[in-house]
Amino acid sequence: ANVPVYALTPWGYEAEEPIKVLGGWAARSPDHDPTLPLSPASMMLSLRTMLDRAAAARMPAMSVGFAFGAESFVARLADGELPITRGTGAVDVHFATTPPMMAALTYMKRPIEEAEAAGALVFTGDRDLAARFIDLFHLPAKAKG
């Protein structure tokens, strides 16, 4: 490659669990606004943080593609886990949108059809499976004072 390539080391990946705990804690802030811009990588980490693992364990294995402009990801849901990698591949459902719109679909439960009609989403795949996938994610209740 003509440009430096960055990738986390195994030691770097060890930081994911504490970062996810902090992300869940921060989402409880009364001032947290899920409509604010976030990066594609932050959206993917958010999905890994807010996944309802018990409900996910009852779901059939599936793959989900995400395209945020030039950045693409593939999530593979199986056994209550959601590993996500950069890149493309064969998927059951695919969302081409922006990270804020993906957050609106996932956390605010904005209907897929509404986002498509507004020109904010190109969706392909099984709509029922996509709806079940989206139902696996919820923001935590806001903290009091």
How much helical structure, as a percent, in the residues?
Answer: 25-40%
Share of β-strand residues? 15-25%
- Category by helix and strand content: alpha+beta
Q: How far do the termini sit from each other? A: 50 Å
Largest sheet: 5 strands, mixed
Key phrases:
single chain; 145 residues; alpha+beta; five-stranded mixed beta sheet; 7 helices
Explain this structure.
This protein is of the alpha+beta class. It is 38% helix and 17% strand. It contains 7 helices and 5 strands, in the order ααααββββααβα. It has a 5-stranded mixed beta sheet with strand order 3-2-1-4-5.
Question: What is the structure about, briefly put?
Answer:
This protein is an alpha+beta fold and 145 residues long. The protein has 7 helices and 5 strands.
List the helices and strands and how they pair.
Layout: H1 10-13, H2 16-27, H3 40-50, H4 53-57, E1 62-68, E2 71-77, E3 84-86, E4 93-96, H5 99-107, H6 112-117, E5 122-125, H7 127-134
Parallel strand pairs: 1-4
Antiparallel strand pairs: 1-2, 2-3, 4-5
